[in-house]
Amino acid sequence: MKLNQFLKVITANNLRSGLVTYMTDNYEWVSNLGDAAVITDADLAKAGLAFAESQSDVVVGAYLSDVKQDELGLTAIHFRDKFRSQGPANVTNGKQGI
Amino acid sequence: MYHYSSFDQDFVNTRVEQFRAQVARRLDGSLTEDEFKPFRLMNGLYLQLHAYMLRVAIPYGTLNSRQMTQLAMISERWDKGYGHFTTRQNIQFNWPKLEDVPNILEALAEVEMHAIQTSGNTIRNITTDHFSGAAADEIADPRPIAELLRQWSTDHPEFQFLPRKFKIAVTGSAAAAPSPALMTLVCG
User: Fold this and answer.
1) pTM over 0.95
2) Do B47 and A56 touch (CB under 8 A)?
3) Shortest Cα–Cα distance, A94 to chain B (Å)
4) From the list B28, B52, B80, which residue is nearest A93 (CB)?
5) What mean pLDDT is reported for chain B?
6) Which listed CATH number (3.40.309.10, 3.90.1150.10, 3.90.480.20, 3.40.50.1820) goes with B6-109?
7) Which residue of A41, A75, B31, B75 shows the fewest CB atoms closer than 10 Å?
């Protein structure tokens, strides 16, 4: 993977629950980063973000998040986004829950 | 322990209903997030990385059994069965849903508690040593002064939109003086 490759997802928080959410290819919102639409084009990213921001009755604080894609799947690059995608380290709560 | 006057109770009850209406307007799209954000922060509600977080003030670090039971009920009914006590005499609920928060605030008001000015750029909840009134080296009980400051600063129009938050602690004991790292102003 080239480091400067354009690879992003759109993420936000759900307005009602506050939980982390990602936009899919179908413009739906899901909780799992692995199900997010991977955007490889700046114009598509701009349009997708504009759509997300128009959904202010569904999500809050939409933004583009850098990701990488390899044999392990989709992974956030920045620490903050990794933290958001994985949920709290407390295994009895959040996405890492057992 | 300070008990609400009828004025206090009316004030807190009114604030709950104001916030209930603000949440309803946010959910029905009448308010944008930018318009709603100052309202939720005035009522202790953050939107953090993983979820909403509601910070509830525990005046002077003391709770009676009725209040503690109500906090437990809130955590079980509207959160995940726990809360986090903080260094500045609050408890934080980390998973409330937005539409439940007015009900949580109503439940808090029933036991003389609230989340007003526990967040945002305002004068935060006034704190004291939680052993106030019982500490052996105490030269004066700081709680009456702390309570006067609380009443003076709560909803004070000059201090609702400060450039940054402002934290006050009052202590009557050198041994119990709070860390300056946690406070803006320590009165002794």
Assistant:
1) no
2) no
3) 8
4) B80
5) 92
6) 3.90.480.20
7) A41
